[in-house]
């Protein structure tokens, strides 16, 4: 079987990966499309740092902490697929049914996240295993390439749900990469009628407008807080200094939602947030209900994800796509179509 794997920090093409065999409760599927996520790019470049941070973290799941960086790593967690066959004693959708799922595999030895693994296949492969109880049928007629973007859109929906934003409030989204625009789309779908977005990239500002932002700003022209008075701020950038800048500049009572993943140590001045009684909410992933709601929003046409797709490659083009995605003016989301 063909697949693209991470080896020594680079994505390489293989045509000798054994076909996976479904066990009880599992379903063998053929991958139809898989989006390349920014977290995959970061893991390829900084996998050792990510694993070290995961191992050091207490009180939270430590999935991926035992990955061997010296062996091939399977990735790809934004996918759509087609049912091929079910494992022993497993009831599921008929063969040929288009499906998607939250990226988790239920196995005999526990739960295997479909994110980074030396053994569990992800969407950068011709075939993979999914869990029958977690499968969602893709509504009839929905382009499977669009269904593959359910996962990143669910991340945006989760951030919006955690923010408690209501239609009459102004929302400011910092950063218009895939997660930023997912937040913008979810805000617009929730009826928020004043969504402001910022990004240094003109291409991404244009995409933000397409996805529902009412106003877009270039941070190079000055702080957005000079012209915007938000009630909710979403950090979708994830670089040191953003949180502290928001605490310093945002109005009294602002709610800050941190969705951008910063892997470096950061410094904040708690006094700013204390003096202005601000709240800070960190967010991660989504719930199964939010995943299903995102699929419905795409299928019903409330959210059009087509503008996010800026390229498609086969499994032999994943390595080049990883390099291409470092240019924010050129790409937003590249799909892998095995």
From TrEMBL:
Keywords: Oxidoreductase. CDD domains: Zn_ADH8. Residues 178-299 form the Alcohol dehydrogenase-like C-terminal domain. Residues 23-139 form the Alcohol dehydrogenase-like N-terminal domain. The keyword Mitochondrion does not apply. PANTHER family: ZINC-TYPE ALCOHOL DEHYDROGENASE-LIKE PROTEIN C1198.01, ZINC-TYPE ALCOHOL DEHYDROGENASE-LIKE PROTEIN C1198.01-RELATED. This is Zinc-binding dehydrogenase.
